[in-house]
Amino acid sequence: MNTSRTEPRPVIPHVSGAAVTGAVLAYGAAYFFSWVKHHSDQACRTTDGLCWTWWDWAAIPLTFTTALITLIIVYKQLDIRPRLAVIPPTILLAPFPLLAAQAIAGWWTAAVTGGAWSCSLALAAWSRYRILGLTASATLLLASLVVLYH
User: Fold this and answer.
1) What is the pLDDT of residue 9?
2) What radius of gyration, in Å, describes the C-alpha atoms of the chain?
3) pLDDT digits (tens, 9 = 90+) for 70-87
4) What letter does residue 1 receive in the DSSP assignment?
5) By percentage, how much of the chain surpasses pLDDT 70?
6) What's the per-residue H, E or C state across 69-113?
7) Are 122 and 80 in contact (CB under 8 A)?
8) Residue 130: which H helix or E strand, with range?
9) Residue of 73, 116, 79, 78 whose CA lies nearest to 94
């Protein structure tokens, strides 16, 4: 009896790579925003009114661009497809869980949450684990919205 059943690809190396990438990006973003705030506080120390520095204006576009390029390169190496369906929600919705985690316990929880967020969305790229990945992503997003708006 010969069955032509295909074995599913092992997803653990792919998803763990996505989790590490998400954690590193989340830590980097938290550190960069902290540095920008410190730099702005120093530059605007003598100003009584509104004060913006170049870094204030460039922080979000630089962070999103860095995350986009990093995710494209890493997900290509990890063979996570379809990248067009995974990368935009990873970047565009990530600020909600990251802000909620940082509001609760600081930068290290933001890094852990970034890893969980990337891992769950990358897991949804495989049809066999799509429901699990989307459920985990939706749970993280809902929990973060409750924390932020409670």
Assistant:
1) 64
2) 18
3) 999 999 999 998 888 899
4) -
5) 94
6) HHHHHHHHHHCCCCHHHHHHHHHHCCHHHHHHHHHHHCHHHHHHH
7) yes
8) helix 130-149
9) 116
Q: List CB contacts of 66: < 8 A, sequence separation 6 or more.
A: 25, 28
Q: In this structure, what token pair is assigned to residue 117?
A: 């967020």
pLDDT recorded at residue 8: 60
End-to-end CA distance of the chain: 59
The Cβ of residue 99 has, within 10 Å, a number of other Cβ atoms equal to 16
Phi-psi label, residue 79: left if phi above 0, alpha if psi -120 to 50, beta otherwise? left
* Distance of alpha carbon 137 from alpha carbon 85, whole angstroms: 14
Of 42, 122, 111, the closest CA to residue 80 belongs to 122
**What's the pLDDT band for 114 if we cut at 50, 70, 90?**
very high
Residue 93: is its pLDDT beyond 80? Answer: yes
Q: Which tokens in the block code for residue 48?
A: 């009584």
Question: How many residues in total does the chain contain?
Answer: 150
